[in-house]
Amino acid sequence: MKVRLLPSSREFEAVAREPVLTAALRQHLNLPHSCKGGSCGTCRVRVVSGRIAYPHGRPAGIDAVEEAAGYALICQAHAVEDLVIETREIRHVTDVEIRELPARVARMERLAPDVMGLWLRLPAIEPFAWQAGQYLDVMLPGERRRSFSIANPPHDAALIELHVRRTPGGAFSDQVFGSMKAGDLLRIEGPLGQFVYRPGDRPLLAVGGGTGYAPLKAILRTVLESGLRRDAVLYWGARAAEDLYDDAWLRGLAAKHPHFHYTGVTTGPVHEAVLRGVAGLAGFDVYAAGPPAMIDAVRHELPRQGADPARIFFDSFDRAPD
Ligand SMILES: Cc1cc2nc3c(=O)[nH]c(=O)nc-3n(C[C@H](O)[C@H](O)[C@H](O)COP(=O)(O)OP(=O)(O)OC[C@H]3O[C@@H](n4cnc5c(N)ncnc54)[C@H](O)[C@@H]3O)c2cc1C
Ligand code: FES
Questions:
Q1: Is 40 near ligand 2, meaning CB less than 6 Å away?
Q2: In 18, 68, 144, 290, which residue has its Cα 20 to 30 A from 225's Cα atom?
Q3: Which atom of ligand 1 is nearest to the CA of 34?
Q4: Is 165 in a helix, a strand, or coil?
Q5: In this structure, how many other beta carbons lie within 10 angstroms of the beta carbon of residue 44?
Q6: What does residue 86 show for φ and ψ, rounded to 5 degrees?
Q7: Which ligand sits nearest to residue 290's alpha carbon?
Q8: Cβ pair 294, 209 in contact under 8 A
Q9: Measuring from atom 31 of ligand 1, which residue has the nearest CA?
């Protein structure tokens, strides 16, 4: 099936039983998306012509009214016939080439009881250019893929740093916490996603839940290590103090950089700590990453206290749809 994008008229092929977004990414078209699980609404398009189907039913991120008005979530929608869809192509935000590459596990370190740090080495001759905040997919047998944010910034590109949370029964994380060892070979695809650092002089508010800290670390290091005089605030929520695995490093960073403030949160939802602790939300660029419920709360509750919805950027760590 052919899928044509408006307004650019670019075309790509989608095969049967494949989400339209997966087909686009495979053909290096980085269309807007975040969770890939049908909940965040980022991949919403207008279907101008042709028919789509949702094999698992209408996803949570779109309601019946929007569906009737011709909108669809292409991370879940399959093409039933040739399609013409209207979408934002955001090449200007992430104009980078998506590649599938082998990656060697160079180092592993237990960061928290259920979080493993993985450092991957990519082939020296294959350029891999990413922007702070983006993620990659680890390719598993059976065409399954798992998404993990890149925790280091592009200016420190010798290895790729990932923070992998253990999901009981998880196809990839069970392997990471079980049999994986330094020297193992993986296949990855990336860079992916539009959750990237936006230059500017507005103060930056980073809100992370659990391993949602990973892309924020890349973004904060970009600001702090490139000598930018941009105010940055990080609120990082986790279940227990031991899960704030970079706490000591972040405190040291805050002591060294007067423009950077850090708060670790282990009691109550992290967005509530933000609402209590941060004044003047209207002036901030907000970067939020973590579990879907946390992202939902940030997107809905922060604007009630003045945050500009257009300046809230987010990555929703949904589970992988197989
Ligand atoms: C853009 C993006 C970036 C991400 N970055 C990271 C990252 O940096 N670090 C990280 O640890 N994770 C990250 N995630 C989440 C991660 O991709 C998923 O949790 C993934 O499913 C884990 O793969 P797995 O093979 O370990 O477990 P799976 O095989 O996917 O899961 C095993 C079982 O657990 C369930 N499950 C999985 N995840 C969840 C969940 N979140 N909530 C409830 N049930 C779940 C599944 O339905 C399945 O039954 C990211 C997700 C996205 C979309
Ligand atoms: S709903 Fe499709 S990417 Fe989130």
A1: yes
A2: 290
A3: 1
A4: strand
A5: 18
A6: -105, 125
A7: 1
A8: yes
A9: 170
The CA 158 to ligand 2 mean position distance, Å, reads 31
Please report, rounded to a whole number, the percentage of residues in the chain having pLDDT higher than 90: 78
Which pLDDT score, from 0 to 100, does residue 17 have? 86
Specify the pTM.
0.87
Question: What would the two tokens of residue 37 be?
Answer: 């699980």
DSSP 82: -
Residue 44 Cβ inside 6 Å of ligand 2? The answer reads no
Q: Where are the beta strands (DSSP E) in the chain?
A: 2-6, 11-13, 44-49, 52-53, 71-73, 78-79, 83-86, 99-112, 115-121, 135-140, 144-149, 160-165, 185-192, 204-209, 232-237, 260-265, 285-290, 312-316
For the chain, domains (ranges, CATH) are 2-86 (3.10.20.30), 99-192 (2.40.30.10), 204-316 (3.40.50.80)
pLDDT band for 322, please (50, 70, 90 cuts).
low
Does ligand 2 have an atom closer than 6 angstroms to the CB of 75? yes
pLDDT tens by residue, 39-71: 888 899 999 999 999 998 999 889 999 999 999
- Supply the residue whose CA is at minimum distance from atom 1 of ligand 2: 38
User: What is the spatial distance between Cα 10 and Cα 46, in angstroms, rounded to a whole number?
Assistant: 15
Percent of the chain residues past pLDDT 70, beyond the cut: 97
Instruction: Work out the pLDDT band at 90, boundaries 50, 70, 90.
Output: low
Q: Which ligand is nearest to the CA of 61?
A: 2
Q: Residues 285-295: pLDDT tens digits?
A: 999 999 999 99
Cα separation, 34 vs 213, in Å, equals: 16
Ligand 2, residue 75: give the atom nearest the CA.
Answer: 2
| Ligand 2: centre distance to CA 124 (Å) | 33
Secondary-structure percent of the chain, ordered helix, strand, coil, rounded to 5? 25, 30, 45
Confidence at 36, pLDDT banded by 50, 70, 90:
confident
